[in-house]
């Protein structure tokens, strides 16, 4: 067996698990028992998984082991599902107490695709109320903690997924992202992710009673958190399989046309006047150096309309949220989440009425400017957050807290508003007064070229040691 697989099974990558199950070296049941034992050991202190599916996973693993041939590329690979996505027979709570009995009548496309690929769903992970915070805490499911320690938020809204995957509760974790909900937890916990672009992954919840707003449809995407980019190359092709229930899904293959080397990478350190923390600057330096060493053509150059795209994008999204979700947030949300939304609305005044329609229309203006830029620079290396991750509950500490947690995240919002793919990965562990934490970068790319982003992240991680080993040593 390879070097990585000399470690306990719960530490194996999805790639190593899939290779071994396909070769008959291990069984799906062996993998499942190892991951469930890890979940039992660490989840009580983390509250990442809020619904264990241990018995269902055991039964499905036994069925896989009894099959004549591997079911798919993820045969026997454990995965978790976020509680805001439908899984037949389970509650799609979205972190809201009023939805605790909303039982899904069928699987969402992402769940169906993972199962079809042979993945084993071992549990459902936590999300904040309405999946609309950069931190994960809810009156229904409680707080999710970061495995690096309680000096750090686990991020949001896929905080349960980020905490679980880095703690060893499965090598893959489903999450989604409308303003940063895959990338915030990746940054907080040290995970690796790629936020797919518009139309890449089919999405729909069979339990929903009304269609989502147009911006929610075009900005929210389904994805995965992992511990390595190689696991994204393994798993994302299964995730993007077509599903007719999403009529706007784009059925393109995972791999696009091979680019002509060297691939040009634009590097930006723009902090929009907020200030760039030295540790984040170091992360940019490390990633740029690794890409250059790997043969990429790395150049310092500023993308167009960056601050404006992020600012306008979030004001537009919040305009739709206020109009369509506002009554439900007021009626069913906690005092805490209502206060947080009040702060959001002050930081990013929502567009309303005709102004909202004009802002939605102008989305094409920003997407076009970025599309033209990406013709010359297919990849863009950016900060994600401008400083190290914040402590738990920071977004609930008034206007200053919301500004710290979300008000400087323009590099995140840009990618959702324009529908572009963007990946996050850690470059190093910072030894800060509050405690150690991973620091990383974002790599954005051309529409429907998530594969190029993951290639670039793979090149970086081949030159920079993974942070999960250090985390597991710290956890004991």
UniProtKB/TrEMBL annotation:
Q: Which residues form the Amidase domain?
A: 30-453
Family matches, as InterPro entries? Amidase (IPR000120), Amidase_dom (IPR023631), AS_sf (IPR036928)
Q: Which SUPFAM superfamilies does the record cross-reference, listed alphabetically?
A: Amidase signature (AS) enzymes
Q: Which domain of life is it from?
A: Bacteria
Please give the family membership noted in the entry: Belongs to the amidase family.
Report the protein name in the record: Amidase family protein
The scientific name of the source species is [Roseibacterium] beibuensis
């Amino acid at each position: 067996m390879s070097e990585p697989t000399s470690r306990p099974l719960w530490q194996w990558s999805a790639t190593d698990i899939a290779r071994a199950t396909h070769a008959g070296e291990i069984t799906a049941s062996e993998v499942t028992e190892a991951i469930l034992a890890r979940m039992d050991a660490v989840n009580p202190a983390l509250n990442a998984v809020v619904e264990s599916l241990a018995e269902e996973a055991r039964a499905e693993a036994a069925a896989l082991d009894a099959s004549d041939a591997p079911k798919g590329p993820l045969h026997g690979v454990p995965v978790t599902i976020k509680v805001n996505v439908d899984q037949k027979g389970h509650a799609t709570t979205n972190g809201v107490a009023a939805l605790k009995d909303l039982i899904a009548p069928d699987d969402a496309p992402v769940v169906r695709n993972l199962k079809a690929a042979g993945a084993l769903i071992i549990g459902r992970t936590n999300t904040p109320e309405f999946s609309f915070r950069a931190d994960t805490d809810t009156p229904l499911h409680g707080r999710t903690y970061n495995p690096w320690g309680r000096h750090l938020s686990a991020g949001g809204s896929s905080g349960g997924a980020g905490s679980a995957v880095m703690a060893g509760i499965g090598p893959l974790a489903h999450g989604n992202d409308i303003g940063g909900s895959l990338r915030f937890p990746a940054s907080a916990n040290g995970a690796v992710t790629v936020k797919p672009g518009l139309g890449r992954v089919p999405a729909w919840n069979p339990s929903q009673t009304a269609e989502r707003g147009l911006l929610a449809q075009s900005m929210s995407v389904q994805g995965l958190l992992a511990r390595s980019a190689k696991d994204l190359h393994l798993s994302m092709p299964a995730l993007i399989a077509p599903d007719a229930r999403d009529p706007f899904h784009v059925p393109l293959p995972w791999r696009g046309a091979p680019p002509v080397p060297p691939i040009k990478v634009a590097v930006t350190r723009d902090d929009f006047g907020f200030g760039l923390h030295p540790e984040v600057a170091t992360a940019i330096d490390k990633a740029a150096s690794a890409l250059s060493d790997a043969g990429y053509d790395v150049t310092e150059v500023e993308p167009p309309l960056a601050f404006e795209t992020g600012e306008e994008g979030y004001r537009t999204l919040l305009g739709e949220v206020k109009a369509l979700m506002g009554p439900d947030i007021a009626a069913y949300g906690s005092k805490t989440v209502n206060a947080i939304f009040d702060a959001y609305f002050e930081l990013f005044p929502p567009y309303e009425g005709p102004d909202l329609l004009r802002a939605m229309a102008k989305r094409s203006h920003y997407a076009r400017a970025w599309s033209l830029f990406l013709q010359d620079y297919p990849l863009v290396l950016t900060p994600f957050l401008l400083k190290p991750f914040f402590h738990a509950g920071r977004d609930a500490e008034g206007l200053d807290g919301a500004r710290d947690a979300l008000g400087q995240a323009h590099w995140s919002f840009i990618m959702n508003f324009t529908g572009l793919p963007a990946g996050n990965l850690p470059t190093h562990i910072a030894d800060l007064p509050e405690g150690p934490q991973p620091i990383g970068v974002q790599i954005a790319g051309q529409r429907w070229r998530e594969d190029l982003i993951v290639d670039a992240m793979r090149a970086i991680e081949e030159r920079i040691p993974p942070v999960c080993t250090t985390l597991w040593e710290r956890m004991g």
